[in-house]
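Bench notes, afternoon.
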Amino acid sequence: MPTDLSPILQRVTAFHNRADIKTTFLSGGITNQNYRVDAGDESFVLRIGGAKTELLGIDRANEYAATQAAAEIGIAPEVVDFVLPEGYLIARFIHGREIPPCEMRETKSLHDVAQALKRIHALAPIRATFSPFQVVRDYDRLAREHDVKTFPENYAWLREQMAVIETTFNHYNSVPVLCHNDLLNGNFLRDEQNNIRILDWEYAGMGDLFFDLANFSAHHELNDEQILELLDAYFDNPLPKHFARLKLMQGMSDFREAMWGVLQQGISELDFDFRGYANQFFEKLSARLNDARYAEWIELVR
């Protein structure tokens, strides 16, 4: 972590020759370093990308483009500056509150999240693309290149099931839309007007809208009734195949998360239990694939 942020701050137009700047480290992130920067009566967030994040598929220019696009519709924080070549992102600090997972499972929150995702998915395309299937393959290759060997015993079977899901999805001609792709609880806030705001756009890219719906529902542990509420708020009149596709994509959300933890074991220098993190999501993935309704979902999506 930089001990002196002055050299970075002096490259930000809004901070030129300011003597009233105060910086505070924001805890909670694993990959990046985030700082609150107070300048007079204004507050900002400086985001410094972590080491080797390009191996995770992160492109800071894409993060900037997605954040800027989502900020224009009032969902992401307003972008103030983007410093090259490092890709430091400076955005306005959102005054608001965290949303507990239990509140996120309530009807109002499910409706608000669905509507926010619909607006994001309607935005103009950006250059980046995102496929959870390709992410798993890329993380697998890179993890092996970095001598990681902590794959679960049923890994070959998990990859076989992934191939079945991917082939099944290929029968469904979906149009790629701009997706956030990392809808952890910590990436949501309610601002002072009680609007849903979404942070951290570094994995954003053109992809399958069902990944966002599945990723959100998996990270917030929605039950089937709550998933149907989410789908109803998004589609108005969801079909059984929509539910099936979301349930299958939840497995891919878990697989992506597990493989993120696997790759981090080989590239990260942070003191974090990435193996335990990966194993937690491998267990969730296995449970989803062993659901008695799995074959039925496959048939519904085909």
